[in-house]
Design a protein that fits this description.
Elements lengths: L2 H16 L18 H8 L16 H19 L9 H6 L3 H5 L1 H4 L9 H10 L16
Helix pairs in contact: 3-7
Amino acid sequence: MNKFALWMTTVLLAVSAQAPASHAGDSINLTGPDPDMRTRVLRAIPPRDQPGQGNPEPVTPEGMDSAIDRRIRSLFEQAADPATQRVTVASAEKASVGYFADHFREIDRDESGSLDFAEVKTFFDARSPIARPTSTGIQMIR
């Protein structure tokens, strides 16, 4: 036996002597490869020809702005009374759009007791983390 093999055997014996007694649940059973593995892996990868699976759009401020506007419009339409196309505190609560109900006084700038989409959009635009350019000119920073 060479020195390395003797040293390795000594280390393994020392480690196994200090290891706690194993339990039946601690063992690992080695078996052959799972025959269904390839099927499961292929099922997890969507086909390329499905709609929406192509190359995603790059994230841009304009794209984010558009997505946020669509979301605001969706929430507004969910909370709006179909007859008047305006949101009241009651209609916001009924539609489970609590943010509109919680911030109703702040959103209702004209104090009419109901919200139109322009008021809602103005409220959210003022709080947007996306900086909106004030002009198309060049900004000089000194």
